TrEMBL record:
Native species: Nocardia brasiliensis (strain ATCC 700358 / HUJEG-1)
The protein's name: PadR-like family transcriptional regulator
Coiled coil stretches, renumbered: 70-97
Pfam families reported for this sequence: PadR (PF03551), Vir_act_alpha_C (PF10400)
SUPFAM superfamilies, per database record: Winged helix' DNA-binding domain
Transcription regulator PadR N-terminal domain: residues covered: 2-52
UniProt keyword Ion transport present: no
InterPro entries: Tscrpt_reg_PadR_C, Tscrpt_reg_PadR_N, WH-like_DNA-bd_sf, WH_DNA-bd_sf
Alphabetical UniProt keywords: Coiled coil
Domain of life where this protein originates: Bacteria
């Protein structure tokens, strides 16, 4: 779930405590080998009912809350190379997340193709959300690389790469979807 919902450990533990006190989950302690005891939770019948009710209610549209995008918006006040370097660093983080998500997707598929998995899996939502996360990171990767290249080109007085030129863009970011050499399960 950490691939699409950010929460600090403190937030997670506080929420788990509330859920357990409300009877929506039940927890038990599991003693690990050479490790501290960990708590494992199971969703109760009431919790399943609550999840069903939650899923039935319309969700609010998502919103981008990204400090780096604000920095790019105010890029005329920044040193181009400093901001471009931060964009490249974030592009690398997105690429690394894509690799992790590719492994998760491959693990979820197992020996199945996507059609079979989506038709027969008891938990298709896990695959669907991992695909969404991968697409999100691919778009981030491509945008971070492109924005860095635009800022560097402007600083050097060179022509800027434009998104409407797929050949130039693919030279810049690899695959226009931002996937470069990272494979895509089932494709």
């Amino acid at each position: 779930m950490t691939n699409f919902w950010h929460a600090t450990p403190q937030q997670v533990y506080a929420e788990l405590t509330k859920l357990e006190e409300s009877g929506l989950i039940s927890g038990r302690d599991v003693i690990g080998r050479g490790r501290q005891t960990k708590r494992v939770f199971t969703v109760t019948g009431s919790g399943r009912d609550e999840l069903s009710a939650f899923v039935a209610v319309s969700s609010k549209p998502g919103a981008i809350r990204e400090d780096l995008v604000v920095k790019v918006y105010a890029s005329e006040f920044a040193e181009a190379e400093v901001l471009a370097a931060e964009l490249e660093e974030r592009a690398e983080r997105s690429r690394a997340k894509m690799v992790v998500l590719d492994a998760i997707l491959a693990d979820l598929l197992g020996d199945d193709d996507e059609q079979t998995h989506l038709s027969t899996s008891a938990h298709p939502g896990r695959y669907l959300t991992a695909i969404r996360g991968r697409g999100f990171e691919a778009e981030n990767h491509a945008w971070f690389r492109w924005a860095a290249a635009v800022l560097r080109a402007r600083a050097a007085g060179e022509p800027v790469p434009v998104r409407s030129d797929p050949v130039a863009l693919s030279r810049l970011v690899g695959d226009p979807a931002g996937v470069e050499s990272v494979g895509h399960p089932g494709g």
